[in-house]
Specification:
This protein is an all-alpha fold. It has one domain. About 85% of the residues lie in helices and about 0% in strands. α1 runs antiparallel to α3 and α1 packs parallel to α4. The longest helix has about 30 residues. The two termini are about 10 Å apart.
């Protein structure tokens, strides 16, 4: 059993690293290129929003992206210091949610989506891995569970 588990660790380690980095890069691109995205969203909404709604939308957009970036940087730091890199359920959940996040954010970047849907995507793709990261910390540091 241990031999099978240890043979998958390098694969999970590299997959998790690639998905976290690609999610981070796309979030940074969205943050730096936010004006065309907000304008594209306003144009596609066919005049339903005025200038005060635009400033509110832009502020919410910056806040959601900044919170997502902050959570992702915390998770990446924890991963790089190998605190939770050997926790199998954390690796699988992180790979799954960050992969979904990369595809959905890329779709958001190429097409303008409704912003209320993007809030759910950012919450799902950053909050769930972060919560499981905290759970892994609790298991490792408080319950003293070892994974190696």
């Amino acid at each position: 059993m241990i031999r099978i588990y240890t043979s998958y660790v390098p694969i999970l380690f590299s997959l998790r690293f690639i998905t976290i980095i690609s999610h981070l890069v796309l979030l940074i691109i969205l943050l730096l290129d936010r004006n065309p995205n907000t304008n594209k969203f306003i144009e596609n909404s066919s005049g339903l929003y005025n200038s005060s709604d635009l400033t509110q939308f832009d502020t919410e957009y910056i806040v959601w992206l900044s919170v997502s970036l902050g959570i992702l940087v915390i998770e990446l730091t924890s991963f790089l210091f190998t605190v939770s890199s050997l926790v199998i359920y954390q690796s699988l959940i992180s790979i799954l949610t960050h992969s979904i996040g990369v595809f959905v954010i890329f779709g958001f970047y190429t097409d303008a989506w409704i912003f209320s849907d993007i809030r759910w995507v950012f919450g799902f793709c950053t909050a769930i891995p972060f919560l499981t990261e905290i759970l892994a910390y609790v298991e490792i540091f408080i319950r003293k569970k070892t994974y190696f």
